[in-house]
Amino acid sequence: MARLDRLLANLGYGSRREVTALVAGGRVVLDGATLKDAGAKIPVAADLPRRLTIAGQPVDPPAPLTLLMHKPLGVVCSHREAGRSVYELLPARWRARIPALSSIGRLDKETSGLLLITDDGPFLHRVISPRSNIAKRYQATLDRSLEGHEAELFAAGTLVLEGEKDPLAPAILEPTGPRTANLTITEGRYHQVRRMFAAVGNHVTALHRDRIGGLSLPADLEPGAWRVLSTDEQAAIFT
Ligand code: URA
Question: Count of domains in the chain?
């Protein structure tokens, strides 16, 4: 149960004073009945948007919330980095949500593909924890043809990236054409895929992530589009 005014303020509908005014104005309806008391206790569960409306619209999904986005090229994943961010693709109100939404790992500005965004701290940590060992698959387009020895080197678990001390964990390279390949990695080091190809004298000209664990980017999700991740999809990440 949560206090209605605190719940709505934490979902970004306004300050406690503003949401109290919304309630007093008869704009908040639970199970068909207009709520008048902003201090009322509300049962918060995943079905809340089917039960609670604000000005006639279903309330936003409460925490814990995880989104699946097809990150487009040209947007950044960090609140702090300059430029348009993935958060600007979500409803404006969501930037005021508490707990805040954040991406699970990051994709570079010039990388597209499957991005998870969540306000669920334990879930985020489970996905990024080295102990979960979750595979991430990238489709890379290269400047030059593969030479043939790259897959063996990446799989060996001995490659040390420039400026680093520890070798990378084994990674799987599957060429899909002379200048295209899928690369599956379990770590998430800074610019890892681009730096791996740089280490073999190549250069990534386009990069797209199409899979995290057992979860694939849905083919019908256009760049810039997103939706709520279902519990089955959440579980698929760990399979
Ligand atoms: N590796 C990269 O180089 N960039 C990404 O965005 C993700 C992995």
Answer: 3
Percent of the chain residues past pLDDT 90, beyond the cut:
99
CA distance 232 to 239: 11
Q: Are residues 79 and 104 in the same domain?
A: yes
Domain that holds residue 120: 66-130+228-236
Residue to probe by mutation, ligand 1, list 194, 202, 204, 217, most atoms within 8 Å of CB:
194
Structure tokens at 80: 């702090």
Cα dist. 228→34, 56, 61, 129, 137 in Å?
27, 21, 9, 22, 21
Per-residue pLDDT at 79: 84
Distance in angstroms (rounded) separating the CA atoms of residues 101 and 235: 20
Q: What's the 204 CA to ligand 1 centre distance in angstroms?
A: 10
Distance (Å, whole) CA 126 – CA 134: 9
232 is catalytic: no
Q: Report if residue 219 sits inside a domain.
A: no
Look up the CATH number of the domain holding residue 143: 3.30.70.1560
Model pTM greater than 0.85? yes
Q: Are residues 45 and 155 in the same domain?
A: no
Q: pLDDT tens, 118-144?
A: 999 999 999 999 999 999 999 999 999
Instruction: Say if residue 140 is in the same domain as residue 191.
Output: yes
